[in-house]
What does this fold into?
Amino acid sequence: MPKELEPGSHESPDDSSSTAHSLELLCHLDNTAHGSTACVMWEPTGDGKKVISLADNHILLWDLQESSGRAVLSSSASLEGKGQLKFTSGRWSPHHTGTQVATANDTTIRGWDTRSMSQIYCIENAHGQLVRDLDFNPNKQYYLASCGDDCKVRFWDTRSVTEPVKTLEEHSHWVWSIRYNHSHDQLVLTGSSDSRVILSNMVSISSEPFGHLVDDDDLSDQEERRPEEKSQEPPQDSVIATYEEHEDSVYAVDWSSADPWLFASLSYDGRLVINRVPRALKYHILL
Amino acid sequence: MAAAAAGPGPGSGPGDSPEGPEAEAPERRRKAHGMLKLYYGLSEGETAGRPPGSDPLDPTDLNGAHFDPEVYLDKLRRECPLAQLMDSETDMVRQIRALDSDMQTLVYENYNKFISATDTIRKMKNDFRKMEDEMDRLATNMAVITDFSARISATLQDRHERITKLAGVHALLRKLQFLFELPSRLTQCVELGAYGQAVRYQGRARAVLQQYQHLPSFRAIQDDCQVITARLAQQLRQRFREGGSGAPEQAECVELLLALGEPAEELCAEFLAHARGRLEAELRSLEAELGPSPPAPDVLEFTDHGGSGFVGGLCQVASAYQELFAAQGPAGAEKLAAFTRELGGRYFALVERRLAQEQGSGDNSLLVRALDRFHRRLRAPGALLAAAGLAEAATEIVERVARERLGHHLQGLRAAFLGCLTDVRQALAAPRLAGKEGPGLAELLANVASSILSHIKASLAAVHLFTAKEVSFSNKPYFRGEFCSQGVREGLIVGFIRSMCQTAQSFCDSPGEKGGATPPALLLLLSRLCLDYETATISYILTLTDEQFLVQDQSPVTPVSTLCAEARETARRLLTHYVKVQGLVISQMLRKSVETRDWLSTLEPRNVRAVMKRVVEDTTAIDVQVGLLYEEGVRKAQSSDSSKRTFSVYSSSRQQGRYAPSYTPSAPMDTNLLSNIQKLFSERIDVFSPVEFNKVSVLTGIIKISLKTLLECVRLRTFGRFGLQQVQVDCHFLQLYLWRFVADEELVHLLLDEVVASAALRCPDPVPMEPSVVEVICERG
It folds into this structure.
């Protein structure tokens, strides 16, 4: 439900006329007082009544009242500092019963507690240049991935923010979008303005344990499994595939919410490419 | 004769005769000899020279023993014709005559000899008679002499025996007198302090007194002597204990005491205890020199003191000990070794403390000389006391110090390198403050390179002192092998080059990555420095090292190629980082300019925006900066200066033609189609790609980064009609000026076309400006 609502509530109404189902304006977030909106996030769990929007240097928490069709600003916070601070993107953490939000402004990543609207952590200089996108690991509550204009992808443990857990440097231009696979969080998708989409296998920091623990317990199978297991023994973080179908910068990538092995990427020239995770890898992960 | 008779044959005749006697002479002589032999009973068989084949028993053989004239005549008469008979007759007559004359000559000669022999014999007979008389007289005289001699010895026999006896008595009496005088003499000696003399007397007398102690008088003397000896020993001990006198006198005391039969064990212990006292005093004085306050005497003086005072003393003690207590056997030697080890250990500890104080100082020659003295002094006792292992310990100390010096020099080199970098930073920062041109980059680079090289050479020279021939420890295996290869080559030189590369690389991953920490010019300079190292300097330095240190060690060393590869990698990374940093600077400028402007309500463009001019200026500045250090590089062939301008104008107009129709709302699909088709035929541009070591490649990288940023920023904005036109003007301006910096101008065209196309797509009212107007504006700018 929330996904469909989002365009309707923000973009110009005449866009919706072309779609098959006509969209109905349910609610208007009155953000005129706070400048241009950079990002809107639904509460990942719960009844879908809360929305956070990032506008310039403000972070705003809205309460949607279905009955009246109004959005009430329930709380807000703003970034203070020298210069013009502007949020570029944000993510609402699916963990901690939806009390945490991460935002990015310039090279800094900040964590917020939505109950008090106060800052929990701050990663200064998370990237050498602008941070473009963030995503939370859906299965490990403290893990956060970020990407930015320094062509790097970084993985953070929000409990210790001085050093990234891991850094990837596969792209040759700004990385615009990063997404964890919803169920197998070792699969990480990134899209970049070098026109490439890269699917990485981050085994070493995924929530799934190395190898297969069940097999180790099963003594009867042990001998048969042994050689296979040996071959898998060193789990290596690796690039699974680089997709070069796009002719121009890729600005968005995302996983299918229905099929965990399906993902789509969208580039400047309007091309939407849908790909599958390679079959061999799929079986490798499943079996 | 038969042969002679038969040889000439019937044809020879008397004409041969004149030659005959000569030819026959040996034959005839042999015949005469044969006769003599016959006379003297020699068997016919032994006579040589007979013509072979002739039968000795042949009765017809004239020369044979069994010659029978009758048979011969018979034979002649029977066999020969008359003429031959006549011949043989005359021949025979001639031979007989010759034989006769020979015989006469022989007889005459022999007769003469007989006569002279007879004369001689007669004379001899006379002489012998005379001699016989004289011999008789001699015999009588000899007999008389023998007689006399016997008589004399008989008379002297008696006296001789008496003299012998008297001499014996005299000797005995003298011995006795010595014995009787011994106590007084000993006393006198002791009083005078001539202990040596006293001990010698005592030694001579002791055995005799021991033997005759059953006699009361001797016993008395012995007792006296023992008392005196005891006193003597007492005094000697006293003197020994006082210990004031030097080691040689003590040694003498001990020697005397030993001669007096004092127990060696005890003396040995006491001797060592005294020696220890003295040597400890030496150590204490050394320690005082060491002191907590800054050491007054330099290290050379210190080791000199130690060498002469402590090590000299130790040597004396050791040699005296070995002389005195040689009888002690291995136990004694062991004691001495333990003693030496302990004191030596303390001495070494002091020396090491002193050397540690020296670590900070830069003067290697003094240190090496000090170490040399130290090592040289300890070699002598080392030879004397192999068991104590002093020489090994000393060598170890020297090696340790050498290693520490290497570490010190490595630190020094690193510090020098960092110092150079600081200087460069200051030099780079200074001109901006002073407002005038400082030293150029190339000059700075040359300064840095030469200063590092001179530092390296100085370090090598300083370290080389350790292996100088005249230094006593330079021929130790460590200094010949490991020190040269592992220490100097690997540790110092390779270590320094590596650390230099690391330091340089650390500028690449500075955490901020904003480039604020490191001035880009420094990156560029370091990159060039590393590249120079790769091409020439590394191999030069290593060759220099190998030559100076003649590395004999076979242990594996880092090959030049590995180091060169490292340096090249560092240079590449630095240059890439330089490109990123400079690209970022220009990118930021472009991004700010795009993001902060309100493109929807902008006015009609009259000018190129100032930021674009700034971009071109900055790019030109970077071009000049890079040009100072790097070569031009290769451009694509198509770029020639004169054609350039027209080409770019043409391209700009063509590009106008291409996207102009697409703005008509009737064909919205064409835009995408066209741009997609164009992209299909263009190469993918890797924006942050590694660069090559030339100016064009560096500039291409920077421009690529900047333009791509511009493109991405433009795509995030929305443009009004005039906004689009402004972008058009700006892009044309950039196109006019940026082509000259890049390897492939097509790249610039492509990216700028993209920018304009993207802006057009983000424009609700895309009406492009006339190309001619664009040109006019740009020309004016």
